[in-house]
Amino acid sequence: MHKDCEYIMLSEQKIQEIVSEMAKKISEDYKGKNLLLVGLLKGSVMFMSDLMKEISIDCAIDFICVSSYGAGTESSGRVNVVKDISQPLDGKDVLIVEDIIDSGNTLNFITKYFEAKNAASVKICTMLSKPSRRVVDIPVDYVGQEVPDEFVIGYGLDYAEKYRNLPYIGVLKPSVYS
Ligand code: IMP
Ligand code: MG
Protein backbone atom coordinates (compact mmCIF):
# COMPACT_ATOMS: atom_id res chain seq x y z
CA MET A 1 0.00 0.00 0.00
CA HIS A 2 1.18 3.55 -0.78
CA LYS A 3 2.52 5.41 2.28
CA ASP A 4 0.01 8.30 1.77
CA CYS A 5 -2.91 5.89 1.86
CA GLU A 6 -4.83 5.52 5.13
CA TYR A 7 -6.53 2.27 4.13
CA ILE A 8 -7.66 0.39 1.04
CA MET A 9 -11.36 0.90 0.41
CA LEU A 10 -11.67 -1.30 -2.69
CA SER A 11 -9.06 -3.90 -3.61
CA GLU A 12 -8.12 -4.68 -7.21
CA GLN A 13 -10.13 -7.87 -6.99
CA LYS A 14 -13.23 -6.16 -5.59
CA ILE A 15 -13.01 -3.50 -8.31
CA GLN A 16 -12.89 -6.16 -11.02
CA GLU A 17 -15.98 -7.85 -9.56
CA ILE A 18 -17.90 -4.57 -9.51
CA VAL A 19 -16.82 -3.63 -13.05
CA SER A 20 -17.75 -7.05 -14.48
CA GLU A 21 -21.22 -6.81 -13.00
CA MET A 22 -21.75 -3.28 -14.36
CA ALA A 23 -20.52 -4.32 -17.83
CA LYS A 24 -22.88 -7.27 -17.87
CA LYS A 25 -25.85 -5.05 -17.06
CA ILE A 26 -24.82 -2.43 -19.64
CA SER A 27 -24.40 -5.13 -22.32
CA GLU A 28 -27.96 -6.31 -21.66
CA ASP A 29 -29.51 -2.84 -21.43
CA TYR A 30 -27.88 -1.58 -24.65
CA LYS A 31 -28.57 -4.62 -26.83
CA GLY A 32 -29.65 -3.36 -30.28
CA LYS A 33 -28.68 0.22 -29.44
CA ASN A 34 -25.96 2.46 -30.79
CA LEU A 35 -23.71 2.54 -27.71
CA LEU A 36 -21.02 5.20 -27.42
CA LEU A 37 -18.97 5.22 -24.23
CA VAL A 38 -17.64 8.69 -23.42
CA GLY A 39 -14.94 8.76 -20.75
CA LEU A 40 -14.29 11.86 -18.71
CA LEU A 41 -10.58 12.55 -18.70
CA LYS A 42 -8.51 12.00 -16.81
CA GLY A 43 -10.06 10.21 -13.86
CA SER A 44 -12.02 7.61 -15.84
CA VAL A 45 -9.09 6.07 -17.76
CA MET A 46 -8.67 2.87 -15.73
CA PHE A 47 -12.38 2.35 -15.21
CA MET A 48 -13.06 2.98 -18.91
CA SER A 49 -10.49 0.44 -20.09
CA ASP A 50 -11.59 -2.25 -17.63
CA LEU A 51 -15.27 -1.64 -18.38
CA MET A 52 -14.96 -1.75 -22.18
CA LYS A 53 -13.05 -5.03 -22.03
CA GLU A 54 -16.03 -6.61 -20.28
CA ILE A 55 -18.76 -5.17 -22.51
CA SER A 56 -19.92 -7.92 -24.84
CA ILE A 57 -21.88 -5.88 -27.41
CA ASP A 58 -20.53 -3.59 -30.15
CA CYS A 59 -19.67 -0.10 -28.96
CA ALA A 60 -17.60 2.92 -29.86
CA ILE A 61 -15.59 5.09 -27.48
CA ASP A 62 -14.70 8.75 -27.15
CA PHE A 63 -13.35 11.10 -24.51
CA ILE A 64 -14.05 14.57 -23.19
CA CYS A 65 -12.00 16.65 -20.80
CA VAL A 66 -13.59 19.39 -18.73
CA SER A 67 -12.39 21.63 -15.94
CA SER A 68 -14.60 23.38 -13.45
CA TYR A 69 -13.88 26.88 -12.34
CA GLY A 70 -13.88 27.71 -8.66
CA ALA A 71 -11.69 27.90 -5.64
CA GLY A 72 -9.99 24.95 -3.98
CA THR A 73 -11.24 21.40 -4.35
CA GLU A 74 -14.94 22.24 -4.67
CA SER A 75 -16.41 22.34 -8.17
CA SER A 76 -18.55 25.40 -8.85
CA GLY A 77 -20.89 24.16 -11.55
CA ARG A 78 -19.33 26.44 -14.13
CA VAL A 79 -17.68 23.92 -16.37
CA ASN A 80 -15.21 24.52 -19.19
CA VAL A 81 -14.69 22.03 -22.05
CA VAL A 82 -10.92 21.59 -22.39
CA LYS A 83 -11.01 18.77 -24.97
CA ASP A 84 -14.24 18.02 -26.79
CA ILE A 85 -15.53 14.73 -28.23
CA SER A 86 -14.51 14.05 -31.81
CA GLN A 87 -17.79 13.03 -33.45
CA PRO A 88 -21.43 14.05 -33.94
CA LEU A 89 -23.80 12.51 -31.38
CA ASP A 90 -26.94 12.38 -33.52
CA GLY A 91 -28.70 9.05 -33.00
CA LYS A 92 -26.10 7.75 -30.55
CA ASP A 93 -26.82 6.25 -27.16
CA VAL A 94 -24.24 7.98 -25.04
CA LEU A 95 -23.06 6.45 -21.80
CA ILE A 96 -20.87 8.84 -19.83
CA VAL A 97 -18.12 7.01 -17.93
CA GLU A 98 -16.95 8.82 -14.80
CA ASP A 99 -14.66 8.02 -11.87
CA ILE A 100 -16.67 9.63 -9.04
CA ILE A 101 -19.73 11.84 -8.62
CA ASP A 102 -19.37 14.35 -5.84
CA SER A 103 -21.54 17.50 -6.06
CA GLY A 104 -22.96 16.37 -9.41
CA ASN A 105 -22.11 19.70 -11.04
CA THR A 106 -19.78 18.24 -13.68
CA LEU A 107 -22.18 15.55 -14.84
CA ASN A 108 -25.15 17.89 -14.74
CA PHE A 109 -23.32 20.13 -17.20
CA ILE A 110 -22.10 17.31 -19.46
CA THR A 111 -25.49 15.58 -19.64
CA LYS A 112 -27.11 18.80 -20.87
CA TYR A 113 -24.19 19.45 -23.21
CA PHE A 114 -24.61 16.04 -24.88
CA GLU A 115 -28.41 16.30 -25.00
CA ALA A 116 -27.99 19.61 -26.83
CA LYS A 117 -25.86 17.75 -29.39
CA ASN A 118 -28.91 15.59 -30.22
CA ALA A 119 -27.81 12.30 -28.70
CA ALA A 120 -30.55 9.64 -28.84
CA SER A 121 -30.03 9.05 -25.11
CA VAL A 122 -27.60 10.17 -22.42
CA LYS A 123 -26.96 8.07 -19.34
CA ILE A 124 -24.34 8.02 -16.60
CA CYS A 125 -22.08 5.26 -15.37
CA THR A 126 -19.81 6.01 -12.43
CA MET A 127 -17.38 3.84 -10.50
CA LEU A 128 -18.00 5.72 -7.24
CA SER A 129 -20.63 8.05 -5.83
CA LYS A 130 -20.59 10.23 -2.70
CA PRO A 131 -24.35 10.75 -2.20
CA SER A 132 -23.90 12.82 0.96
CA ARG A 133 -22.11 15.52 -1.08
CA ARG A 134 -24.70 15.90 -3.83
CA VAL A 135 -25.71 19.49 -4.66
CA VAL A 136 -27.42 18.84 -8.00
CA ASP A 137 -29.83 15.92 -8.03
CA ILE A 138 -29.03 14.12 -11.27
CA PRO A 139 -30.18 10.60 -12.14
CA VAL A 140 -27.25 8.18 -12.13
CA ASP A 141 -27.99 5.00 -14.03
CA TYR A 142 -25.04 2.78 -13.05
CA VAL A 143 -23.11 3.13 -9.79
CA GLY A 144 -20.25 0.80 -8.89
CA GLN A 145 -20.04 1.67 -5.21
CA GLU A 146 -21.37 4.37 -2.91
CA VAL A 147 -18.69 5.79 -0.64
CA PRO A 148 -18.69 7.98 2.47
CA ASP A 149 -17.40 11.55 2.42
CA GLU A 150 -13.69 10.78 2.43
CA PHE A 151 -11.08 11.78 -0.13
CA VAL A 152 -10.26 8.75 -2.23
CA ILE A 153 -7.32 8.12 -4.54
CA GLY A 154 -6.16 5.51 -7.03
CA TYR A 155 -7.74 3.69 -9.97
CA GLY A 156 -7.58 6.95 -11.95
CA LEU A 157 -8.49 9.23 -9.04
CA ASP A 158 -5.93 11.85 -8.09
CA TYR A 159 -4.98 14.38 -5.49
CA ALA A 160 -2.97 17.16 -7.18
CA GLU A 161 -2.39 14.85 -10.17
CA LYS A 162 -0.80 12.14 -8.01
CA TYR A 163 -1.87 8.57 -7.20
CA ARG A 164 -3.85 7.93 -10.42
CA ASN A 165 -1.70 4.86 -11.14
CA LEU A 166 -2.55 2.96 -7.95
CA PRO A 167 -4.46 -0.19 -8.97
CA TYR A 168 -6.74 -0.06 -5.88
CA ILE A 169 -8.98 2.67 -4.41
CA GLY A 170 -7.77 3.99 -1.08
CA VAL A 171 -8.45 6.81 1.35
CA LEU A 172 -5.87 9.61 1.32
CA LYS A 173 -4.29 10.38 4.69
CA PRO A 174 -5.67 13.77 5.82
CA SER A 175 -2.11 14.79 6.79
CA VAL A 176 -1.28 14.97 3.06
CA TYR A 177 -3.74 17.80 2.37
CA SER A 178 -4.19 19.53 5.72
P1 IMP B 1 -18.46 17.12 -9.04
O1 IMP B 1 -18.70 18.07 -10.16
O2 IMP B 1 -18.42 17.82 -7.71
O3 IMP B 1 -19.40 15.95 -9.02
O4 IMP B 1 -16.98 16.66 -9.26
C1 IMP B 1 -16.61 15.39 -9.49
C2 IMP B 1 -15.13 15.39 -9.74
O5 IMP B 1 -14.40 15.82 -8.58
C3 IMP B 1 -14.66 13.99 -10.02
O6 IMP B 1 -14.69 13.71 -11.39
C4 IMP B 1 -13.26 14.00 -9.47
O7 IMP B 1 -12.37 14.44 -10.47
C5 IMP B 1 -13.28 15.00 -8.36
N1 IMP B 1 -13.41 14.34 -7.04
C6 IMP B 1 -14.47 14.38 -6.20
N2 IMP B 1 -14.26 13.67 -5.10
C7 IMP B 1 -13.02 13.12 -5.24
C8 IMP B 1 -12.22 12.25 -4.40
O8 IMP B 1 -12.59 11.81 -3.30
N3 IMP B 1 -11.00 11.93 -4.90
C9 IMP B 1 -10.53 12.37 -6.10
N4 IMP B 1 -11.24 13.18 -6.90
C10 IMP B 1 -12.48 13.55 -6.47
MG1 MG C 1 -13.10 13.52 -12.72
What does this structure look like?
It is built from four helices and nine strands, in the order E-H-E-H-E-E-E-H-E-E-E-E-H. It has one domain: Rossmann fold. With 178 residues, it is α/β, with parallel strands linked by helices. The strands form two sheets. It has a six-stranded mixed β-sheet. It has a three-stranded antiparallel β-sheet with strand order 1-9-8. The longest helix has 18 residues, at 12-29. The protein has helices spanning 12-29, 45-54, 105-116, 174-177; strands spanning 5-10, 35-41, 60-68, 79-83, 93-101, 121-129, 142-146, 152-153, 169-172. Bound molecules: inosinic acid and magnesium ion (MG). Residues 43, 68, 75, 98-106, 151-152, 157 line the site of inosinic acid.
Please outline what is shown here.
The chain has helices at 12-29, 45-54, 105-116, 174-177, and strands at 5-10, 35-41, 60-68, 79-83, 93-101, 121-129, 142-146, 152-153, 169-172. The chain is α/β, with parallel strands linked by helices.
For the structure shown, list the relevant keywords:
178 residues; globular; six-stranded mixed beta sheet; 4 helices; Rossmann fold; binds magnesium ion; binds inosinic acid; three-stranded antiparallel beta sheet; alpha/beta
Cofactors and ligands: inosinic acid, magnesium ion
Report strand %. 25-35%
What general outline do the C-alpha atoms trace? globular
Stretches with pLDDT under 50, minimum 5 residues: none
CATH architecture: 3-Layer(aba) Sandwich
**Which structural class should the secondary elements be placed in?**
alpha/beta
Number of domains: 1
Instruction: Note the quaternary state here.
Output: single chain
How many beta-strand runs?
A: 9
User: SSE order in H/E notation?
Assistant: EHEHEEEHEEEEH
